[in-house]
Amino acid sequence: MKSKSISVIKIGGRAASDQKTLISLITEMKSLDSEHHFILVHGGGAEVSRIGSIFGHTPRFVHGIRMTSPEEMDIVDMVLSGKMNKYLVRLANRVTRAVGISGSDGFLFTGESIESGTGSVNHTGKITKVSTELVELLIENDFIPVISSTSMDNQGRALNINADEAALHIAAAVKADNLIFLSDIPGILHDDRVLSCLNGKEAEAAIQKEIISGGMIPKVRSSLTALREGVGHVIIGRYSGSGDLTQLIQGNRGTYLYKEHS
Predict the structure, then answer these.
(1) Cβ atoms of residues 92 and 144 within 8 Å
(2) Which is nearest to 92 in space by CA: 33, 162, 135?
(3) Which pLDDT score is estimated for 116?
(4) CB-based burial, 127-166: b 16+ in 10 Å, e otherwise
(5) N or C end of the chain: smaller count of CB under 10 Å?
(6) Nearest to 8 by CA among 37, 32, 31, 28
(7) Superfamily for domain range 5-258
C-alpha cells in the first residue's frame, strides 16, 4: 500500500472555497498521482454558520470550540456531508476519480461527545478510534477520498468533529508521509516572515517564546503529536495556484515541521 507516498491535505480558506483555485489544486494532484496517494479532508464551519442563521441558530463557542445542539447537528450533516462534500467531489471528478465519505463511513473515525458546560446534549465530539480500511481500499484503487468531518459515537449518535483533528488522526493512522494544512496564511509567521522549517524542539521553543501564539498553538502542538505518531512531515501553508502543492511537499513553501532525529 506504500508503493506511493501518502499525502493528507486538509483544505480551508480560498483553496476550499474558490472554484478556480480548487480546480488548479486537484489538477496538480492528478499530475502527481504517479508518485502520491492523496486524501482530502474538509470542514466548513463558516457555511454551517451561514445556513444555520437561516434557520435561526446562533453558533455557540466554548474556548473557541463550536458546541453543537441536536438541531444544529442536522445542519452540520446537511452542509458538511451533503452540500460541501458533494460540491468538492463533483469538482474533483472533472479531472480525476474521487469518492465522498464522512467519518461515519466504514467507521473511518469514531468518537465521543465533549462536555458542553451546560448539561445539555452536545454533538461536538473528539476522536477516539480510527479505522483506515475504507480509505486504504479507495487509494489502492486510485480514488481520492474526499472526507467530511462528521462522524458518530459507539452508539451511532452523530458527532461534529473539528476538521483539523480529523486530518491529524487520519494522517497518523495511515502513516502519511505528508500532512498539509492549507489556509489563507502562507505559514507560521514571525515578524511577517514565514518560518520555513522547524523541528519539534524548535517549534516548542517558539511557543514558549510566544513566537507561535494564539490559534496556531493548538495546531502546531497537534502537528507535533502527529509527527510522534508516525507522520513524516507536517506542512502549514497557502495554495494560490499551479505549482504550489509541489513546492509545499518539497519544503520550499510554507512552514515545514519535522521530527528531529533522536
Answers:
(1) yes
(2) 33
(3) 54
(4) beebebebbbebbeeebbbbbbbbbbeeeeebbbbbbbbb
(5) C
(6) 37
(7) Acetylglutamate kinase-like (3.40.1160.10)
Contacts of 184 (CB under 8 A, 6+ apart): 12, 13, 14, 238
Quote the CA–CA distance of 39 and 220 in Å, as a whole number.
Answer: 20
Q: 163: closest CA among 47, 253, 21?
A: 47
* The overall pTM is greater than 0.85: yes
Full strand arrangement of the beta sheet holding 5-11: 98-102, 144-148, 36-42, 5-11, 178-182, 233-237, 255-258, 197-199
Q: How far apart are CA 186 and CA 183, in angstroms?
A: 8
Which three cell numbers, joined as nine digits, stand for 81?
A: 456531508
Closest CA to 77 of 105, 40, 96: 105
pLDDT at 260: 76
Q: How many residues does the chain have?
A: 262
Q: Say if residues 108 and 147 touch (Cβ distance below 8 Å).
A: yes
User: Which residue positions in the chain have pLDDT lower than 50?
Assistant: none
For the chain, what are the domain ranges? Answer: 5-258
Set of cell numbers at residue 50: 451561514
Q: Which residues pair with 127 in a beta bridge?
A: 111
Q: How far apart are CA 262 and CA 256, in angstroms?
A: 18
